Amino acid sequence: MRSLIDILELSVEEIDELISLAEDIIAHPEKYRDSCRYKKLATLFFEPSTRTRLSFEAAMYELGGNVLSMASAGSSSAAKGESVADTAKTVSCYADIIAMRHPKEGAPMVAAMNASIPVINAGDGGHNHPTQTLADLLTIWREKGRFTGLTIGLCGDLKFGRTVHSLISALARYNGNKFVLISPVELKLPSYVKKDVLQKNQISYTQTTDLEAALPELDILYMTRVQRERFFNEEDYLRLKDSYILTPEKLNKAKKDLAILHPLPRVNEISVGVDADPRAVYFKQVLNGKYMRMALILKLLEVEV
Ligand code: NCD
After folding, report:
1. What percent of the chain has pLDDT over 90?
2. Closest-CA residue to 174 (of 281, 3, 15, 4)
3. Domain pair 7-129+289-300 / 132-285, same fold
4. CA-CA to 153 of 20 to 30 Å: which in 55, 136, 194, 204?
């Protein structure tokens, strides 16, 4: 039995298999309509979510399965002081697979160690978000047709943005990629990601505060929201929140085949005027997330179609 806590638990071959499976689901959804019949997914979300939770639920329904979920974290026994370990043991009695989001880094890992069913990390604090990375990878694959030789700009809150940490880990395994890390000085990529992922694998990267200067060389621009809920004080958030705002004018300097991604939710960092630009693929990315979660559920439940 396998869980998914960190994207690196999937080999590059397994990522390729999940992408092929997602492509087959997109092409032949009817083949998969009953593949998780009588199976239940429990969504345990102790932090707000729109896309991740609903896409997991939609994924399970489209596979013919069912979903158990709590109205909110405040309505679960966690509010009475129950541990993550006990919650995981309990939910193992009711469901076949768990998707868990938690404000504490490592909580889904603790759940996986105690559950008798697979646990999927749906975001743990400012740490990791592997299934968002699966959505990002399918989007890059469909837009660019490759994971190699890309110049990837990551812009915004690189310190607290968990999607950025997982995506860098995933893309650092392919040859010839170059990262441009664009952030305010206070929100730079944590040194553990720089050391353990970029420097250890001798990946080429640059750091800058200037989005406009970096834009012309990028093949991919991954925008992120400043993660208000992880700040220690509101003043710092207010000062940093509008550090970057992507507009149609700024995009005039970008490549014609740039792909603009964003895990969403967007607050202010991409103006609505950009949405009509064919290079803006963040709503396609939302849909891709559902297909990759379908593929992942099939894999972890070991369902043969
Ligand atoms: C992201 C998250 O929760 O980390 N959202 C998502 O799952 N698509 C990004 C964010 O909240 O900024």
Report:
1. 95
2. 15
3. yes
4. 55
The third-level CATH classification (topology) of the domain covering 7-129+289-300 is: Rossmann fold (3.40.50)
CA of 99 to the centre of ligand 1 (A): 15
Pocket around ligand 1: residues whose beta carbon is below 6 Å from it? 51-52, 123, 129, 132, 162-163, 224-225, 263-265
Give the pLDDT mean for 202-228: 98
**Interacting residues of 98 by C-beta distance below 8 A, sequence separation 6+:** 41, 42, 43, 44, 88, 91, 92, 111, 115, 117, 118, 119, 120
Tens digits of residue pLDDT in 232-291: 999 999 999 999 999 999 999 999 999 999 999 999 999 999 999 999 999 999 999 999
The residues annotated as belonging to the active site are: 51-52, 80, 101, 129
Q: List the domain boundaries for the chain.
A: 7-129+289-300, 132-285
- Tens of pLDDT, residue by residue over 122-146, are 999 999 999 999 999 999 999 999 9
Q: Which fold has domain 132-285?
A: Rossmann fold (3.40.50)
**122 Cα to the center of ligand 1, angstroms:** 9
304 CA to centre of ligand 1 in angstroms: 31
- Give, for ligand 1, the residue of 47, 51, 52, 222 to mutate: max count of ligand atoms closer than 8 Å to Cβ: 52
